[in-house]
Amino acid sequence: MSRLSSSSCETLLEAPPLTRFSGLLGEPAATGVLTRLDRELAWQRPTLRLYGREHPIPRHQVWMGSPEARYRYSGCDFCPEAWHPAVAAIRDAVVERLAAAGQAAHFNSVLLNRYADGEERMGWHSDDEPELGADPLIVAVSLGAERPLRFRWKQREAAAFNAWLPHDSLLLMGPGVQRRLQHALLPRRIEGLRISLTFRWVQPPPADGRAS
Ligand SMILES: O=C(O)CCC(=O)C(=O)O
Ligand SMILES: [Fe+2]
To answer: Which terms are listed as keywords in the entry (predicted)?
Structure first.
């Protein structure tokens, strides 16, 4: 896979580790895959029940992964779709890029989020579901419009901050990030489509079928 000379790696936090890498796929691959994912995936807008009312989520999403990677998210049970070849290629590029930086990683699932414009968003949360295990390593790949992922400390030990995520970048959220911080993609007056892919390792349910 070709690498642009613009590829780089920046430490946003030392502890817990938060690192941004740019130039993951290079061009024209990154723009091509953005268009392909937009066109080819079965984007869904599930409804969440909050305080007795139904609300469609303010974005579209697809949950994808290996069949054993069943996952509960915001109270819904997701059966993942099979790996799309373009998504599997991004996953492999992420693993390769992290390995080159000395970070071993493996992923059996990904949540893809599609934000049509700056109005579409994701609220404050941590990716700390029990299926992800203690202190997971999660990687967010960004394609399309550059938007900030906002972080805040749960114990308010330091100021909230933005991690700007340019097209074709990835953000490594290492062990402790989900335990100590929350993140959100807040609405901003920023034009254009953005697709993010958050790669995770979901612990397969116990073999005797006693899934929670
Ligand atoms: O769109 C993003 O960059 C964030 C997505 C996210 O936080 C998630 O999928 O859990
Ligand atoms: Fe998240």
So the answer is: Dioxygenase, Oxidoreductase
Domain limits, the chain? 8-45+58-200
Tokens standing for residue 20 = 């941004």
Give me ligand 1 centre to Cα 208, in Å: 32
Q: Which atom of ligand 1 is the closest one to the Cα of 113?
A: 1
Q: What is the pTM of this model?
A: 0.91
CA distance 46 to 124: 18
Type of residue at 64: M
User: Cβ(126)–Cβ(171) under 8 Å?
Assistant: no
Non-local CB neighbours of 52 within 8 Å, separated by 6+ positions:
none
Tell me which residue of 71, 33, 79, 100 sits closest to 200, measured CA to CA. Answer: 71
> What spatial distance separates the first Cα and last Cα of the chain, rounded to whole Å?
40
Q: Which atom of ligand 1 is nearest to the CA of 61?
A: 9
Report the topology of domain 8-45+58-200: Jelly Rolls (2.60.120)
For residue 210, is pLDDT > 90?
no
Task: Tabulate helix, strand, coil % of the chain (nearest 5).
Answer: 15, 40, 45
Kindly report the number of other CB atoms within 10 A of residue 203's CB atom.
16
Residue with tokens 């490594």: 172
> Ligand 1 in contact with 62 (CB < 6 A)?
no
Q: What letter represents residue 76's amino acid?
A: C
Q: ipTM for the complex?
A: 0.99
